[in-house]
Write a structure and sequence with these properties.
The protein has about 500 residues and is an alpha+beta fold. About 25% of the residues lie in helices and about 25% in strands. It has helices at about 10-15, 50-55, 110-120, 160, 225-230, 275-285, 325-335, 355-370, 380-390, 415-420, 435-445, 445-465, and strands spanning about 30-35, 65-70, 75, 80-85, 90-95, 135-145, 145-150, 185-190, 195-200, 215-220, 235-240, 250-265, 300, 345-350, 375-380, 400-405, 470-480, 485, 500-504.
């Protein structure tokens, strides 16, 4: 085994001088990708956030396991060659050998343990822990190429959960890094904030060499501009364009999106602490009016925060019908009982979150106003939006509700339910003991029982608790240069693996 002698501070120097440094001249196998929003971070443990994951997930930093929506293979090996459940319920992973990080050090079980412990540490605000809520998970090194994960309570889908934990060298400090080091087929060779990010192919990657030599990411908020850049050859891929710009069958693709648009409601703050107000809000939004107008045909009305193809979806739960008079009546009843329904409520949305987001949120604001709500609309960039999204929620903003998109392309509600709805969930506005119990029971179940328990929870959250305002399961449109061999999938909005791109 190669001894790990590089200090973390030397990684930047290694990046600048290694064999995968950026070529001086662009090659035909170099591509440019134009994204809708800039990255505020390049931190591997934040790769489950879509704008970061599109760049570094599996490109720079890999995971032990990988969920494959492209070929329908389900969970497949990545840095782990195999895994099996032990008699005590723990999981043992056999790691791939001969793998090196981009700083030249050798990958082993200590890196896996450090990556997991770092991601879960309270000293750093990573995204990964939100998916492991309600459980205690420990990583134990067996030998250089074997590691055990034990969970309390036992988690039957722990290998799937680990597809969200990116691996970094054990020398990585427990603080956000600007220079991610990984085992993936690419390394970050340039990051000029506000301008571009460049990934360059590594010659010493353990797996098959991708066709793409390097990828340059640039950022444009206007979807029409993104589409035009691909049309004129200034860019090769625009993962997200609007339906009105998707006019060329040779380059434009519609794809099933795993993103769900919803409005998160905080039940602890008046007037949203009254279920009648939450129900009125849902009834005041004419969801169907958006489909085929501001949102593409094929957009589905949501009753839960995961796609209807997910195991545990409940087809018997129906979206709230548009009922303006019914909404007004509920608000009047609540007001008569002393609920401060006239309180100004901020509707906080994320700039460039999806095509036509401004127009959609303005229309929702108008619908709520017509029902009798006092709504002020605000837009924030991604970093500011995140400060409203996760606990501790700000206490100096008054009453607010948060418009957001949630991505679950893993096929199981566990990647949604705890952190969105449990009383201790990082992004939960709900505090209901029955919900907590139902989440715990479903998380520990398997097979048909698991799907049934999740389905029951969907109905309870939607019909009884009125936990939030689920809006739309989205349809995405991408524009891809005719010189590329690539088609988007359900995961394209949160992950864009360069190794899956070829050339015609």
């Amino acid at each position: 085994m190669v001894t790990k002698t590089l200090t973390f501070g030397a990684m930047v120097l290694a990046a600048a001088t290694s064999a995968w440094a950026a070529p001086a001249m662009a090659a035909d196998s170099d591509i440019k990708i134009v994204l809708s929003e800039e990255l505020d971070l390049l931190e591997p443990c934040m790769a489950t956030r879509s704008n970061i994951g599109r760049v570094i997930l599996e490109n720079v930093n890999e995971t032990l396991t990988e969920y494959d929506p492209r070929n329908g293979k389900g969970l497949v090996p990545r840095l782990a060659e195999s895994w099996e459940q032990q008699a005590d319920g723990s999981w043992r992973f056999k790691l791939r050998q001969g793998v090196k990080f981009s700083d030249g050090t050798t990958f082993d079980a200590k890196d896996v343990k450090h990556s997991f412990d770092r991601a879960m540490s309270e000293k750093i605000s990573c995204e990964s822990p939100r998916y492991f809520g309600g459980m205690t998970v420990k990583a134990n090194v067996v030998d250089d190429h074997t590691i055990d994960f034990s969970a309390d309570p036992v988690q039957p889908i722990l290998p799937l959960l680990l597809s969200l934990v990116t691996i970094v060298p054990e020398e990585t400090p427990i603080e956000f890094t600007r220079q991610p080091v990984g085992t993936g087929p690419y390394a970050v060779t340039n990051w000029t904030p506000g301008q571009q990010i460049v990934l360059t192919r590594r010659d010493d990657y353990w797996g098959e060499q991708p066709k793409v030599t390097s990828a340059t990411y640039v950022f444009r908020t206007d979807p029409a501009v993104r589409a035009a850049m691909v049309q004129t050859g200034e860019a090769d891929i625009a993962p997200s364009i609007s339906q009105v710009d998707a006019t060329n069958p040779a380059t434009d693709f519609a794809y099933l999106d795993s993103e769900t648009v919803y409005i998160r409601l905080d039940h602890s703050v008046a007037p949203m602490n009254d279920v009648r107000v939450r129900r009125a809000l849902n009834m005041a939004i004419d969801r169907s009016a958006f489909v085929g107008t501001l949102l593409p045909e094929g957009t589905e009305l949501a009753v839960a925060l995961f796609p209807p193809t997910t195991a545990g979806a409940n087809p018997d739960v129906k979206p709230y019908p548009f009922d303006l008079e019914g909404a007004k009546k509920l608000l009047a009843e609540a007001k008569a009982d002393g609920v401060p329904v006239d309180t100004q409520i901020k509707l906080i949305a994320r700039t460039a979150n999806f095509p036509n987001v401004t127009e959609v949120m303005e229309a929702i604001q108008q619908m709520l106003t017509e029902a009798g709500f006092n709504v002020k609309l605000e837009f924030h960039e991604v970093a500011e939006h995140e400060s409203f999204y996760s606990k501790p929620f700000p206490t100096d903003q008054g009453a607010y509700m948060l418009a957001a998109m949630h991505d679950n392309n893993k096929g199981d509600p566990v990647f949604t339910m705890f952190f969105k709805y449990d009383s201790e969930g990082r992004q939960s506005g709900t505090n209901d003991p029955k919900v907590d119990e139902m989440i715990a029971a479903a998380s520990a179940a398997t097979g048909d029982e698991r799907a049934k328990l999740w389905s029951d929870l969907v109905a309870y959250l939607h019909d009884d608790v009125v936990a939030d305002a689920p809006l739309f399961h989205m349809v995405g449109y991408s524009r891809v240069s005719e010189r590329l061999d690539f088609k988007p999938t359900i995961s394209t909005n949160s992950q864009l693996q360069l190794s899956q791109i070829g050339f015609k």
